[in-house]
Amino acid sequence: MAKYRAALPQLKGANFLTDGGMETTLIFHQGAELPCFASFVLLETEEGREQLRAYYRPFLEVARSRGLGFILDTATWRANPDWGAKLGYDAAGLDRINRLAVAEVLALREEYETPATPHVVSGAIGPRGDGYKQGFMDRSEAEDYHAPQIASFAAAGADMVAGFTLTGIEEAIGIARAARRLAMPCAISFTLETDGRMLGGETLREAIEAVDAATDRSPAYFMLNCVHPQHLATSFEERGDWTSRILGLRANASTKSHAELDESETLDEGDPLDLGQRYVGLRKRLPTLRILGGCCGTDHRHVAAICEAAVPAAA
Questions:
Q1: SS3 assignment, position 130
Q2: From CA 189, how far away is CA 152, in angstroms rounded?
Q3: What values do phi and psi take at 135, rounded to 5?
Q4: pTM of the entire structure?
Q5: Cα separation of 41 and 99, whole Å?
Q6: Exposed, middle or buried: residue 265 (CB in 10 Å: 0-12, 13-18, 19+)?
Q7: In this predicted model, what pLDDT tens digit does every residue of 68-121 receive, in sequence order?
Q8: Which of 88, 174, 87, 74 is closest to 125 using CA atoms?
Q9: Over the stretch 218-229, which tens digit does the pLDDT of each residue have?
Q10: Fewer CB within 10 Å: N-end or C-end of the chain?
Q11: What CA–CA distance (Å, rounded) separates 55 from 25?
C-alpha cells in the first residue's frame, strides 16, 4: 500500500528537496554509460543499481542535515514505449523496469525517512519525444501512451507520478488524465524556452490554465524543470490564481538555451551560489514555491546551495 498516495505531505506547506540532474551527474561525474540518455538501464545490474544509490545519497544527506522532507523521483524519465523500444524493451520489460525503479527508491526511503521528514516516492515520466522539442500527440493519444507506465508505478507502490520536461500542453493533459483514471496523484512539470514561454509560444499561465481546464484541476500541483531562473524573468508578470498552482522548481545550472545544451559535449555546472540566490528571488515572487531541486548540470552541491540560501534553518 502506498504510504502517501491519499495525502501528499508536500501539499501541507513544508519545504521539500529533490535531487538534481540525474543523467548529467551520472554521465559526467560517475562515468556511466547511458544510451539514449536513459538512466533506467542501470537498474539491470547490481553495479548499476549501486551507481544510482550513490547518486541519490548525497541529496538525501543534504535533506537529512536540514531536517527536510524529500521527493524521491525514480530513474525512469526515458522508460516509456518509444525510448524503451530503442533499447530493446517491450511492454513487459518496461513494466518490470518501472516497478524495479520504484522498489529501489522505496528502499532508500526506509533508510532515510523519519517521522518529521516524509520522503515521497514519485514515478518520473518523461515526454514521448525529445524533451527539448515540440510534442506531437493529442491529449487522447497521450493519455493512452502514458497510462501503462503510470499503472506500473501504481502497482509498485509509488505515492504519485510526475511528468517532467514537458514542452506541449496536449501531452501534459494526457498525462494528467491518465493519472486521474488510475487514481494516482500527479504533478505536471513544464520546461520553458529562454523567453520564458512554452516551445509553442504559449505563456506559462496559458499552459497551466489549459491543463487545469481540461482536467478539472486534477494535477496536485505544477512545477518547472530544465530551465534556468534567469529565463523566468517575465513568466510571472501576469498575476492570478494560476501562480499558486506552482509548487516546485528544478532549475538547470546553465543559462544556455536548450539548443545549446543539446549540442554541448561538456558539462556546464554554472555557479551553485548564484543559483541559490536566484531561488531566493523567485520565492519572493512565488510564495508557494517549496519543492526545490535541480535539473541538468546540477548535483548535490547546487541543491545544498539552494537549500542554504532559500530555506530558513530550523531554530
A1: coil
A2: 20
A3: -70, 165
A4: 0.96
A5: 13
A6: exposed
A7: 999 999 999 999 999 999 999 999 999 999 999 999 999 999 999 999 999 999
A8: 74
A9: 999 999 999 999
A10: C
A11: 8
